[in-house]
């Protein structure tokens, strides 16, 4: 069972990776296309030289790893994937060989969190358009909508949301997914010191955070939110839980 969890940044994606990694039957990989993305685009991100040095810059070799022997011979291989890393020139045929799940979050909350880490933000940076594009591609191949889970639902009731997610992808729920030891992991990307401060202190999913209002966003972020909102709402219609909670 290979699970590709597609999200943008600042979307409880690392906490979800922690949750799956704490299962005794699961191996994880953290943003495997990141180095290739930086090498191919020339985009300047925090710790770019270190990420390129530590990672695999040939996307075809990344795919070989994702579809090859699972680390530790585990029966479940959880792949934390960033949608904006799937740029033009990176093939997607391999998506047929994994279970694709889409992790979404309200754009207001994403933008508020992301802008606290980087001064300049674009729609491309937060991956909403790419997430919608990958969702459509997977849906076309499946002939139905792939699973979508909202971060708000996970934070509101982790047990119910993760139980439902496991049911949908076809693995048993594990109590180990609800809590984990604090600290850094060997599986964390080299970029962890910049991005993972909060999750390194965590021992489980945090309580739902205050919903960021549109009016609270800076003027330069509001147009990005306007573009991201219909993309979020499009996927939210297919979420596997009931009415989305407010995060």
Automatic annotation (TrEMBL):
GO biological process, one term: branched-chain amino acid biosynthetic process
Amino-acid biosynthesis keyword on record: yes
UniProt cross-references to SUPFAM superfamilies, sorted A to Z: P-loop containing nucleoside triphosphate hydrolases
Keywords: Amino-acid biosynthesis, Branched-chain amino acid biosynthesis, Transferase
One of the record's GO molecular function terms: transferase activity
Family matches, as InterPro entries: Class-IV_PLP-Dep_Aminotrnsfr, P-loop_NTPase
Pfam families noted in UniProt: Sulfotransfer_5
Highest taxon, organism lineage: Bacteria
Family: Belongs to the class-IV pyridoxal-phosphate-dependent aminotransferase family.
PANTHER family for the chain: AMINO-ACID AMINOTRANSFERASE, AMINODEOXYCHORISMATE LYASE
Protein known as: Sulfotransferase family protein
Organism: Rhodobium orientis
